[in-house]
Amino acid sequence: MTSHQVLGKQVDMPVEIRAASAFMAMHSVPAVAAQSLIDYSGLEILQFRPGRGVCVLVFVDYVDGDLGPYNEFGVAFLVRDHRSDGASVPQDLKALARGRAGALIHQLPVDGDFTLAAGRGIWGFPKVLADFDVDHTGSVKRGSVSQGGRLIAQLSVKQGIPVPGSGAGTSLAAYSHLDGLTRFTTWDMSPTGVRSRPGGAELKLGSHPIADELRSLGLPKRALVTSSIPELKMTFGDAQPV
């Protein structure tokens, strides 16, 4: 078992999140515009249909985990596995169906110093400090994130219908890029009580540069799918260079 020193504390791998909740909106975005935002990573946008990729906006409340309690807002893109030997829409759809798509964590504001240091130091996640106002408990989930007094995004997600089979574990390759190095991490999730629906999101963008990035993708617009996860357990392994 490996371990890392973070701000004078030892963090043993894998890192476990014993209790968290999340809500998210998935948007169809132009693949060319999305690719231009992530070219730095060396990865390729996964296309679920010709010329269209997927951008995920997600708020997570980490309640009990090895990195302490904190809030997080993620901007992620579905990407092709760096080990895949093909690049076509049919192959992308096959990868999606088989759970072999990856997620590049492109932006990751948080509100905790320890998770900031751990996320950047252990996995190369692009964590930055920000301010949060979030409600995970109401029937409509709401989150607002800002930095330096400038709104990044405000997202609300209406309640969906229960998803059969939620509670089954799933694994994802989570990609990150920091200091010129792209890494990938095995990210295991065990969600309970998942609810999803088509659309169902309201998104407001502010004056922050991250908001401008999202506007360059044609947002805000109707979401493809929204989901809420009241109970979420996760495990993060060590990162490996791509």
From TrEMBL:
InterPro entries: Acetoacetate_decarboxylase, ADC_dom_sf. Gene3D superfamilies: Acetoacetate decarboxylase-like. It comes from the Bacteria. GO terms for molecular function: lyase activity. This is Acetoacetate decarboxylase. It comes from Rhodococcus wratislaviensis NBRC 100605.
